[in-house]
Amino acid sequence: MTGRLIGIARVHEKRAAPEQIAEAQVSVAGGIEGDVRGTSSGRQVTVLFRDGWDDACRELGTILPWVTRRANLYVEGIERPRRVGDLLQIGDIVLAVREETAPCNLMELAHRGLRAALKPDWRGGVCCDVVSGGTIRVGDSVALAVTEFAAR
Fold it and tell me: Going by DSSP bridges, is the β-strand pair 45-49/141-145 parallel, antiparallel, or unpaired?
């Protein structure tokens, strides 16, 4: 199954508003160029899946912009991974899923009830490390490779 990258965002400093961009350079050493979280092991790049975001918004009875979640990448058309070690191929890059993105208190500040709405079934997305870097652009294809090994 192939999906599509429908959004890219980065945050220049902690708690700053996300900046949406059409393309980004992604590296093993620094994640998304210009993103403050890019050097955090296990959390270099965060990915939000449209189906999970839509489920959370439906539960809240509202439509919120995807950047409210503060994720780096927004994808549609593939089932969201629910296992550590799975790989995501997005355009030229490969990401390894390291953990479920745990909704933090910023979600509650953004919209009442959002933190709880993101908790079930990996709705908040995944945190990843960059396995191989390159350039990504909105519209790039996205594929999930389910692996049999666990991340170390």
Answer: unpaired
| Type of residue at 67 | V
Q: What is the DSSP letter of 61?
A: T
SS3 at position 15: coil
4, 90, 99, 127, 152 from 78: Cα distances, Å? 8, 12, 18, 17, 25
Which has the closest alpha carbon to 138: 3, 2, 5? 5
Q: What angle do CA 43, 30, 32 make, to 5 degrees?
A: 75
CA distance 32 to 28: 9
Q: Looking at this protein, which amino acid is placed at residue 74?
A: Y
> Residue 97 and residue 150: Cα distance in Å, rounded?
10
pLDDT tens digits, 23-76: 999 999 999 999 998 887 778 999 999 999 999 999 999 999 999 999 999 999
User: Hey, what domains does the chain have and what are their CATH numbers?
Assistant: 2-145 (2.40.33.20)
